[in-house]
Write a structure and sequence with these properties.
The complex is a heterodimer of chains A (176) and B (249). Chain A is of the alpha/beta class. In chain A, the strands form two sheets. Chain A has a three-stranded mixed sheet with strand order 3-4-5, with no helix packed on it. A two-stranded parallel sheet of chain A has the order 1-2. In chain A, α3 packs across α5. The radius of gyration of chain A is 16 Å and the shape is globular. Chain B has two domains: 116 residues, Rossmann fold (3-Layer(aba) Sandwich); 120 residues, Hypothetical Protein Yjia, Chain: A,domain 2. Chain B is globular. In chain B, strands 3-2-4-1-5-6 form a six-stranded parallel sheet, sandwiched between helices. In chain B, strands 7, 8, 9, 10, 11 and 12 form a six-stranded mixed sheet that branches. The chains are: A alpha/beta (176), B alpha/beta (249). At the A-B interface, α4 of A face α5 and α7 of B.
Chain lengths: 176, 249
């Protein structure tokens, strides 16, 4: 079975359409979306409508939750001061733009999706705000896996990715 | 011996002078006129060779006095300046032009006594805009600065053909950034200066951008969003000082 996994569309309708066109050219049996439909980009309602129209199974991302519950719900670990400033601006704008229908849809998204031995989450099985990075302690990673009762052997998460390369290894001054 | 170095934007004039200074054992003078309040090249030379006398804003009489003493001197002329300085009319000097092979028939070559192969220049005069910003006292969050620099050099604020800067980072280090549009990537060089861990640095830092259609307001605003406030800087420096003292102990 061939599975296409989308994530972090962030209101970028043009990019979503481009990816879906590409998927159409592939022998894909099922599409999953790992959330963060909104935030940053200019088309939050349109992206949600498109995902809903195609009935793509989607779990909730951290940005989706933020729009539902307010910024205080987010413990986002912004990679930089600049990203934090821009993130807050984007949150405020998106929060004003989303329709009640979009907000309700985002609020009701599941935190995990399962198919056979696969589990799809946005961050980790523990939280959509948590990053599982290559340097995450193995014990912690295992605990996250075991914490999800229905989780099987594999998991897929967009926050399981490499850090953005910095000028040099350097702690975020806010979190040093 | 006076050596006057000229060439197009991004040709590698300062780098060539640094190479010459590295081979010399005697005291020397570095002169870079017309840089105003953003002496990026002069700061780079001074950091690498503290024994070199730097002239960029001092009175001409003082410079003449030093030249009369016969100290070897390097004049670096920015691409935007006239290449015939009145000061040099009566002083014997050696003219060096850095030009790429495809610029070999340019005016630089006709002017020069010696032509050195330089980088291809990304700038085609005259439709070019130069924007400078002194940043002394500003301390940058490294990942924010990294994002800004990628955006800047990839065209988010206008078409940038040349950008160079000296930035103070949160850990007290000062870095020189060097982007030439005709070359791949950016060269990042840590300046050999003491780490500044007490308050805002009292030494020069700044940015110079050459390009077209530069959105100066957006550049300024983004730079500001990349810097540490006093309330962030003070505890961060305190934690660095503590960790440094623990390492020494």
């Amino acid at each position: 079975m061939n599975i296409a996994v989308l994530s972090c569309i962030h209101s970028n309708l043009e990019a979503l359409e481009a990816v879906l066109r590409d998927i159409d050219q592939q022998p894909v049996d099922q599409i999953y979306c790992l959330g963060d439909l909104v935030g940053y980009g200019p088309y939050p309602n349109e992206v949600v409508a498109h995902i809903r129209a195609l009935d793509i199974p989607t779990c909730q991302g951290c940005w989706d939750e933020d729009i539902v519950e307010g910024l205080n719900a987010c413990e986002c670990s912004y990679p930089s001061l600049l990203a934090e400033t821009r993130g807050r601006l984007a949150h405020d704008w998106t929060n004003r733009e989303v329709t009640p229908e979009t907000r309700t849809y985002l609020a009701n998204l599941p935190l995990t999706l399962q198919q056979e031995n696969l589990c799809f989450v946005h961050g980790s099985p523990h939280s959509q705000h948590e990053y599982l990075l290559p340097d995450t302690n193995a014990f912690t990673a295992m605990e996250r896996v075991l914490a999800t009762e229905r989780l099987h052997r594999d998991g897929t998460s967009p926050h399981h990715r490499s850090r953005h390369p910095l000028l040099r290894p350097h702690p975020h001054p806010l979190r040093a | 011996m006076i050596t006057v170095v000229a060439g197009p934007c991004g040709a590698g004039k300062t780098t060539w002078i640094l190479q010459e200074l590295a081979q010399a054992s005697a005291p020397a003078i570095y002169v870079t006129p017309g840089v105003g309040t953003v002496p990026i090249d002069a700061t780079r030379v001074a950091a690498r060779f503290p024994q070199v006398d730097i002239f960029h804003r001092q009175p001409e009489a003082e410079l003449r006095q030093r030249l009369a003493a016969g100290v070897p001197a390097y004049f670096e002329l920015g691409f935007h300046l006239e290449i015939d300085l009145p000061l040099l009319e009566t002083l014997p000097h050696h003219r060096v032009a850095l030009v790429a092979d495809d610029d070999a028939d340019s005016g630089w070559s006709l002017w020069a006594d010696q032509v050195v192969r330089g980088n291809p220049s990304p700038v085609k005069r005259p439709a070019v805009q130069m924007w400078q910003a002194p940043l002394t006292g500003q301390v940058f969050d490294p990942p924010s600065l990294d994002t800004f620099w990628q955006e800047l050099t990839q065209g988010a604020y206008g078409r940038v053909q040349r950008a160079k800067g000296i930035f103070e980072l949160a850990d007290g280090q000062a870095f020189h950034f060097d982007f030439v549009g005709s070359l791949p990537g950016t060269a990042y060089t840590e300046l050999p200066l003491p780490r500044w861990l007490e308050g805002r640095p009292h030494r020069f830092s700044g940015l110079e951008v050459v390009g077209q259609g530069l959105e100066e307001g957006a550049i300024t605003a983004t730079l500001k969003d990349c810097t540490l406030s006093d309330s962030l800087l003070a505890p961060h420096q305190a934690s660095l000082q503590t960790s440094d003292s623990l390492e020494v102990a």
